Amino acid sequence: xxxxxxxxxxxxxxxxxxxxxxxxxxxxxxxxxxxxxxxxxxxxxxxxxxxxxxxxxxxxxxxxxxxxxxxxxxxxxxxxxxxxxxxxxxxxxxxxxxxxxxxxxxxxxxxxxxxxxxxxxxxxxxxxxxxxxxxxxxxxxxxxxxxxxxxxxxxxxxxxxxxxxxxxxxxxxxxxxxxxxxxxxxxxxxxxxxxxxxxxxxxxxxxxxxxxxxxxxxxxxxxxxxxxxxxxxxxxxxxxxxxxxxxxxxxxxxxxxxxxxxxxxxxxxxxxxxxxxxxxxxxxxxxxxxxxxxxxxxxxxxxxxxxxxxxxxxxxxxxxxxxxxxxxxxxxxxxxxxxxxxxxxxxxxxxxxxxxxxxxxxxxxxxxxxxxxxxxxxxxxxxxxxxxxxxxxxxxxxxxxx
Length: 402
Known about the structure:
Blueprint: H1 9-24, H2 28-39, H3 46-58, H4 62-75, H5 80-92, H6 96-109, H7 114-126, H8 130-143, H9 148-160, H10 164-177, H11 182-192, H12 201-211, H13 215-222, H14 227-237, E1 245-251, H15 257-260, E2 266-273, H16 276-283, E3 290-293, H17 296-301, E4 307-312, H18 323-331, E5 333-344, E6 351-353, E7 359-361, H19 363-372, E8 376-388, E9 391-401
Parallel strand pairs: 1-2, 1-4, 2-3, 4-5
Antiparallel strand pairs: 5-9, 6-7, 8-9
């Protein structure tokens, strides 16, 4: 490096070396400071913008990472590493079309880059281009048959498209490569009709972490989901002792869709969810007093609060056996509590793991469970929960109290 500024060439080189060492040692703030100082002097040095982009990305500052990688890419458009990281940042910032173009650019020079192909397949999946996503995953496996993430993604895609035999075969391959892969084992159980009564936490986390970026658009716009608002209408039709609540708990709060429907009648809301990524979105809405990451059972076992409003919209399908949850909620409920939730409906059995990977519960199971755990059913309302392929998912809305 050379410059006519106050630094000597040796001093400039030392700033760069120190920044690089700090970056390698995880001292990201110090490294960032060094790169920014150098960029103020050498604004067209691509390595500086690239390294700064890596730091921003590692700090989850994706918009800043995108800006840095964009500058670096404009300076060296032929650099595949820069373009790859640009694509990663574009996806994180919600620009799927931009990410797809960037990944395709990398593949134009290196068509056998399996990591690029896999990330491209994920982008196509999130962009609802399912057939292209399947073809792209197959390209990955043609190059690297043991690429477990691509096998699992392909299983999910075939499952989503209703090709259950192919989905079953690929979920079996996932388990062969990784016998401890709980999500794949759960989906195998659902497709094989096993009598499972609970979902692994890792499965629920995987589903919603992967779904978080498109969750609300997909659920509300494509699947016409409005369960929280339907629950609200059911409540308004009842003659309840009170219509406003002091302290609410949103079980499986996700991105906050449920809480949003009750912000004007619940004074303070706490939320609990297994998905970090969903909680990050919920936090940005300012609905909740506190947000907790973890399972409902673990949270309730350590809870020090008492609630007069409990909400579980589209949650119990991911739990299965509900006895422990009902018992714990009873323990932390105020005497004037209202407990609202939805279930998918099944007849003839207490509960059943469906081919979707979710559980359905019979009305008799909920009624008997309520009675044995100290709850009283105030209302059961039959409804349609969401669209699924060409039909509707049938369900029940419940209002319980003590």
